[in-house]
Amino acid sequence: MRKVLVCGAGGFIGGHLVKKLKKEGAWARGVDIKQLEFANSPADEFIIGDLTRQNVVEKVLDQPFDEVYQLVADMGGAGYIFTGKNDANLMHNSATINLNIIQQAVERLMNSDFEGPVNIGSEEMISLNDLAKMVIAISGKKLSIYNKPVSYEGVRGRRSDNRLIQEKLGPL
Ligand SMILES: NC(=O)c1ccc[n+]([C@@H]2O[C@H](COP(=O)([O-])OP(=O)(O)OC[C@H]3O[C@@H](n4cnc5c(N)ncnc54)[C@H](O)[C@@H]3O)[C@@H](O)[C@H]2O)c1
Predict the structure, then answer these.
(1) Ligand 1 pocket, 50 CB below 6 A?
(2) Most ligand 1 atoms within 8 A of CB, residue of 6, 13, 80, 161 to mutate
(3) Can you give the pTM of this predicted structure?
């Protein structure tokens, strides 16, 4: 049986990835510093632990795996940008679009012979307001956008440079 390890299985991408891998019939071990929120993880084993600790890594990698997914991150992204009930809808819709793209890209990458780090994100740059407008249009809901003043400023923008993956795996 295909044996997979998902680091960051308590997070957004890792949580959904475990669900997908289980549907595909894999045996999955999840690991995270916290449980998956809002649902029980379908992982066959879920280890709670801090992966910056060597003893946790040794415990988690006590056997060979066919696939290892590293999705642990200290993000502080979307959760900081969106607040409130409608914003939660927006976040859910935009995150779901993103998730589908990420899952397809990860699957293609795992099924390829390519080894090494590679970007698999979108090359498109879009403002948060334009993204919000797009998601509202897709949802068909009547929502307005409120730009909440913030006292801090994070990364102004970033996008993926996909030249390497296109060279190795063909057009995305
Ligand atoms: N969410 C997106 O739309 C998106 C898009 C492109 C790329 N990514 C990348 O995918 C990765 C995962 O993103 P996400 O949205 O699932 O983030 P997330 O914050 O939901 O998940 C990250 C998980 O890592 C866990 N974690 C953090 N430190 C840990 C530690 N020391 N030990 C064990 N677990 C630890 C957190 O508890 C969390 O559950 C990130 O590298 C992110 O940049 C995400």
Answers:
(1) yes
(2) 13
(3) 0.78
Q: Do 68 and 4 reside in the same domain of the chain?
A: yes
How many whole angstroms separate alpha carbon 102 and alpha carbon 74? 18
Q: What angle do CA 141, 144, 150 make, to 5 degrees?
A: 135
* 106 within ligand 1 shell (Cβ under 6 A): no
74 lines ligand 1 (CB under 6 A): yes
**Do residues 135 and 148 both lie within one domain?**
yes
Structural domain boundaries, residue 41: 1-75
138 lines ligand 1 (CB under 6 A): no
pLDDT tens digits, one per residue of 135-168: 999 999 999 999 988 887 777 777 888 899 889 8
Can you read off the two tokens belonging to residue 54?
């060597």
Ligand 1 geometric centre to CA of 70 (Å):
9
Using 50, 70 and 90 to split pLDDT, how confident is the model at 80?
Answer: very low
The amino acid that residue 109 corresponds to is L
| CA–CA gap between residue 35 and residue 1 (Å, rounded) | 25
Torsion-angle region of 30 (φ positive above 0: left; ψ -120 to 50: alpha; else: beta): beta
